[in-house]
């Protein structure tokens, strides 16, 4: 495959290069095996998997209340297929910050619609492909920490390079577009604005010096020529979802880090490299211009990425910390809650087809204002096992349960998860915990390989449990309630909050659950966050062709879910080509900040390159929105 082809692949397709799929069953055959929608929702019919029937039964009990309808305080909007953002009547939106917008006055005017951002200014502007974000408050100041996930070289590179960097400067420019932006924003009464030159403003990129802590720090697995102690890795990359600690720091989650490494010569093909989809040619050719990304020269560098990294956005001089105790995988987000006894619990998903859901539980406890020492470096990593009877358990990953040394368990968490029999999932994206109830939700975005092929470690992926549909192109959201209403418990019960689908195209399980209808349907739930009033906001990253099995679903969107009644209503639609990702609120909850990633056309400027942006959304009457 030629370079310019690699760059056009989705991350899923890139994974597939490393782990090819056999000829799949035809979709028709899958549908034939599916039951009628009525039977599915009735919940009692056998459909290959007992779990499907029982999951459906629980679902229908939650959706039964739907007729009463708690409703929403906005009028749901229709789908859109255009290159614009739409919000409900009575709401306003504006662009807060776009890729290339200056964080410092020296970078003002650096962005050009023809050439993008020059390398020397590339780490002084807002990054590309905005993703997870969180709000922080320091006195009367509002600070946002915002992830920039990846790059679109065909858009971002200034020359006709067919999407591949041609020299070290271009590699540096692409690297600087990723990472994290910390930026102060000020309430101007009109959806906030960026405070250029604020002392809080900061970019954290592939180049930022970090430290590493936890059991794998300093191990042979993470030592490189540049860092023989294995304690001082450089850089964070492919920053996807986010989290906020109880003590007010930012967690940035490194997702598709595998794509940045490649080999210029020989290298040892290990089980670890294979399981994480690393090897051969890198997706962005970084290895050709920067030896850090070259497996032939630095075989351990990939082991220093794929972590949850903690940043203090209120201290621009602070050194970010990579926490190995939370495990290494394609981290989506990190949702921190507290166990009844005060221990810190972090829920995490590994977004790849057939990979796992994890949680970390600290040994120490947190009290407000108390020491946070060791809370993210000394604890136990668990992986989720879902049973078909709607129960589940968190399996500890320890040397005793896995037969692996602790540093191997953490660096190769996927391999450890396979050893204990974790449940292969339909791509776990964001996890959100209900602030009003002891329960949590995970968006299982889709999995075309469900029931078709094993995961990259050879674990089977039968349609079962919370992943009940073969060739699952729509996705679902699983919910679990920890035993004893304690996030520290190792047992839980689960159900499905929603199965996405298309009830106008299908009359079977692919129509989705009963809380999906022609008026609110969507595919591929991804970003999720709870507002303080207990509503679940759902963002999508799916097929926006509005054709075939996706007809009637339109552009990617943001919906609001009532978790008591099951009702789901569409709140926002994104420009065609974009996914909606990242959601946080102003301190007074009157403004929502929403990420619009990889828009199509030339949104939002209407000329030149499309620019990934954070938008602000608020109600015209000044009422709360979050
Ligand atoms: Fe970066 Fe899985 O989304
Ligand atoms: Ca995502
Ligand atoms: Ca996604
Ligand atoms: Ca994305």
TrEMBL record:
InterPro entries: PhoX, TAT_signal. Pfam families: PhoX. PROSITE patterns: TAT. Residues 449-473 are annotated as: Disordered. This is Transcriptional initiation protein Tat.
């Amino acid at each position: 495959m030629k370079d310019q082809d690699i760059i056009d692949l989705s991350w899923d397709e890139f994974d597939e290069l490393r782990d090819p799929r056999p000829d799949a069953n035809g979709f028709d055959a899958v549908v034939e095996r599916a039951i009628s929608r009525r039977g599915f929702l009735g919940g009692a019919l056998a459909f290959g998997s007992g779990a499907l029937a029982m999951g459906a039964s629980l679902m229908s009990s939650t959706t039964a209340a739907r007729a009463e309808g708690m409703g929403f305080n906005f009028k749901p909007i229709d789908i859109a297929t255009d290159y614009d953002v739409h919000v409900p009547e009575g709401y306003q939106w504006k662009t807060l910050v776009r890729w290339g917008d200056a964080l410092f006055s020296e970078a003002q005017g650096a962005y050009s619609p023809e050439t993008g951002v020059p390398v020397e200014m590339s780490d002084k502007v807002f990054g590309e492909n905005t993703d997870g974000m969180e709000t922080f408050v320091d006195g009367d100041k509002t600070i946002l920490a915002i992830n920039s996930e990846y790059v679109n070289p065909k858009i971002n590179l200034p020359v006709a390079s067919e999407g591949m960097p041609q020299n070290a400067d271009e590699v540096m420019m692409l690297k600087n577009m990723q990472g994290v932006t910390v930026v102060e924003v000020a309430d101007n009464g009109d959806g906030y604005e960026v405070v250029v030159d604020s002392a809080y403003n900061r970019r954290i990129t592939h180049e930022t010096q970090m430290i590493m802590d936890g059991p794998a720090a300093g191990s042979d697995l993470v030592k490189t020529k540049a860092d023989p102690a294995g304690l001082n890795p450089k850089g964070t990359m492919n920053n996807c979802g986010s989290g906020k600690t109880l003590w007010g720091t930012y967690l940035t989650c490194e997702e598709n880090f595998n794509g940045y490494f490649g080999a210029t010569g020989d290298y040892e093909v290990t089980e670890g490299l294979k399981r994480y989809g690393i090897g051969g040619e890198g997706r962005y050719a970084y290895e050709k211009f920067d030896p850090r990304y070259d497996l032939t020269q630095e075989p351990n560098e990939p082991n220093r990425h794929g972590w949850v990294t903690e940043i203090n956005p209120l201290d621009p001089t602070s050194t970010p910390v990579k926490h190995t105790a939370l495990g290494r995988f394609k981290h989506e987000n990190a949702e921190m809650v507290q166990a009844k006894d005060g221990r810190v619990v972090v829920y995490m998903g590994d977004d790849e087809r057939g990979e796992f859901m994890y949680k970390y539980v600290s040994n120490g406890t947190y009290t407000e204002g108390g020491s946070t020492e060791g809370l993210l470096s000394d604890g136990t990593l668990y992986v989720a096992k879902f049973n078909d009877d709607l129960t589940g358990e968190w399996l500890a990953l320890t040397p005793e349960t896995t037969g692996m040394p602790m540093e191997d368990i953490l660096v190769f968490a996927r391999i450890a998860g396979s050893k204990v029999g974790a449940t292969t999932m339909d791509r776990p994206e964001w996890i959100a915990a209900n602030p009003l109830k002891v329960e949590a939700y995970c968006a299982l975005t889709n999995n075309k390989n469900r029931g078709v092929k094993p995961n990259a470690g050879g674990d089977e992926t039968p349609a079962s449990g919370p992943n009940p549909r073969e060739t699952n192109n729509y996705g679902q959201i699983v919910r679990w309630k920890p035993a004893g209403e304690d996030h520290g418990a190792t047992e839980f019960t689960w159900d499905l909050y929603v199965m996405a689908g298309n009830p106008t195209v299908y009359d079977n399980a692919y129509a989705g659950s009963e809380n999906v209808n022609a008026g609110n349907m969507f595919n591929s739930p991804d970003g999720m966050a709870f507002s303080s009033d207990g509503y679940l906001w759902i963002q999508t990253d799916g097929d926006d062709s509005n054709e075939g099995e996706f007809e009637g679903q339109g552009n990617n969107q943001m919906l609001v879910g009532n978790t008591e009644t099951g009702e789901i209503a569409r709140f926002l639609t994104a420009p065609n080509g974009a996914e909606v990702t990242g959601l946080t609120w102003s301190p007074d909850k009157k403004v929502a900040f929403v990420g619009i990633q990889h828009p199509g056309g030339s949104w939002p400027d209407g000329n030149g390159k499309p620019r990934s942006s954070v938008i602000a959304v608020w109600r015209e009457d000044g009422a709360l929105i979050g």
